[in-house]
Amino acid sequence: MRAVVLRAFGPPERLVLEWMPDESPDVDQALVAVEFASVTFVETQVRAGRPPSPAMAPRLPAVLGNGVGGVVTRVGADVDQGIVGRRVVTTTGGSGGYAEQAAVRADLLIDVPETVGLADAMALLADGRTAIGLVDLAAVAPGETVLIEAAAGGVGGLLVQLTRQVGATVIGAAGGQRKTAHVASLGADVAIDYSRPGWEADLRARAGSIDVVFDGVGGHIGRACLDLLEPGGRFVSYGMASGAFTQIPDDGARRRGVTILRPAPREPGELSDLTRRALIEAAAGRLRAVVGQTYSLEKAADAHTAIAARQTIGKTLLRATTSPETHR
Ligand SMILES: NC(=O)c1ccc[n+]([C@@H]2O[C@H](COP(=O)([O-])OP(=O)(O)OC[C@H]3O[C@@H](n4cnc5c(N)ncnc54)[C@H](OP(=O)(O)O)[C@@H]3O)[C@@H](O)[C@H]2O)c1
Questions:
Q1: What confidence tens digit (pLDDT) does each residue in 46-99 have?
Q2: Number of other residues whose CB lies within 10 A of the CB of residue 69
Q3: Can you tell me the distance from the alpha carbon of 11 to that of 132, in angstroms, rounded to the nearest whole number?
Q4: Which residue from 18, 59, 219, 322 lies 20 to 30 Å from 163 (Cα-Cα)?
Q5: CA atoms of 44 and 106, how far apart (whole Å)
């Protein structure tokens, strides 16, 4: 099979397509012929050698990629043969996704509903479970006003839709006019371009009082959004796309009456259940998956370049063209 191999941390060009031995499922595993592999923002940081935490740095050489979608072609001895042929999305457990085959835990496979496309299901695999988990964590209530950063992104775009559904007033903030137009098309009540000077004042004027901030960016954008919260507000810190988490002064937030929320680690089974919820929402037509860009496996470096340059909208996928070997 072919896989995208990282032999040294560095720029996107370090992602190189190579031939590797075919995967074989262990007793409790299923072999997935990969049609799509998910590319996540954090993988660009891992590839560059700047992961959010040192524990996330893989041993090299490595095949990045924590999410795949495709068809089950073989199973290990302890797994029900009946699942062969199923269309699934699943986590790889951290690595091995950017490849034509993935051997994965059979108990974590998630069936894709008939009416949901595989690419759309991939857009809901990680981003869907993350967004649903964050809305649960923040306990957004009808009538509240929420502010979502990077609102045109994978997680951000789903947060816009989910919080609208709850009955919140949604302010989506993103960089550039193409992105704010997309945020508005997802149903945000207000779309703010934070690449423009003076955006904080614009936001303050148009938003009124903000109850919840979803902070996936950190850095100065996260800090500016934190400062917009009223007493009693909640600040959900879940990412650092800027390169640094939002600096929150030790007792500053508490003194202002703002609660800081951070997602706790979850068991793999719980994460699968959250993805299933996202797929049910999509199948019912209540959640729109946005696949903004798809690259071939050999263009994995281009996918990373586009994400790091903030050029992407929604989910970014790699399409693995399956070799004849995959179908044996
Ligand atoms: N995907 C998941 O399941 C998941 C899970 C846990 C945590 N997270 C975290 O959530 C954040 C968003 O993840 P995502 O996968 O949905 O990515 P994404 O939003 O699709 O892409 C990241 C976005 O962050 C914004 N950004 C702000 N400053 C940036 C900078 N200096 N460089 C690059 N981008 C910058 C850009 O949007 P603008 O141009 O509009 O600012 C960019 O498009 C990331 O920090 C990620 O690590 C994601």
A1: 999 999 899 999 999 999 999 999 999 999 999 999 999 999 999 999 999 999
A2: 28
A3: 32
A4: 219
A5: 28
